[in-house]
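Quick bug: PIG-L deacetylase family protein output formatted oddly.
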Amino acid sequence: MARTAVFFHAHPDDEALLTAGTMAMLAAEGHRVVLVVATAGERGLADLPHGDELAEARTAELYESAAVLGVARVVLLGYGDSGLSESGGGGADRPENAFMDADIEEAAQRLATVLKEEQADLLTIYDPAGGYGHPDHVQVYRVGGRAAVIAGTPILLEATVNRDPLLRALRLAQRVHRFPPEFDMRSFELAYSPGDVITHRVNVRKYAKSKRASMSAHATQASGGGGERTLGVMLRVPGPLYRLVFGTEWYVRRDLPPGTRLKHPFDPAPGEPV
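Here's what came back:
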């Protein structure tokens, strides 16, 4: 039976990094996939362009990514990109309509309208930390959780990363590599989600090409701020290793008991035993 999944993200390219494989998989299985993005990412790091031109470029990249993944509908909520200052906030120069400052109830109603129109069976948001703490990501968690309640969306998944292997890799790297002085391991100890709370480990290796193409669509985000960025580094990973490293996507479903280990985002259906 075909169902509808709505993926809620903060900025263009977030879908490529966290949920692209799952989106491509569900679309290939015949489900309807809808992508909702809170901002146009106009304050993201990029060499060129900037401001409104960057917003236009990133919006075009978003639609290119969506087409690659088989997305049926893209919705932009129209909030301003809050940016990310060194202190973790949006900075004093953030726009008046910055998403991090949006009224949660008002923003949730906007998203709930989409959920109701689509009769969504599933909504993805982020974990409470917003992944790595970006204020717009934290707001996605707050707004999305409330919208699911308003719309009565039965399945709510938090897109995340298993931080346990990430921490192990970083600690190992510290033994052989000197990180810059500003590197703070403690920030990674609080980022994303520990493995024992993750309920869904979705194997998306079959859709690695689509995921990589989704990342490639976001060309403005491959570099910026004086150097290569995370997305650019990811795109340089060779194919076989890429499938291994990026072949799993992780989710947390809070209404399931601890220790649950599932492989598909629609499992289990509401009311069904785990």
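Actually, after a second look the formatting is fine. The CA atoms of residues 42 and 55 lie 4 Å apart. Closing.
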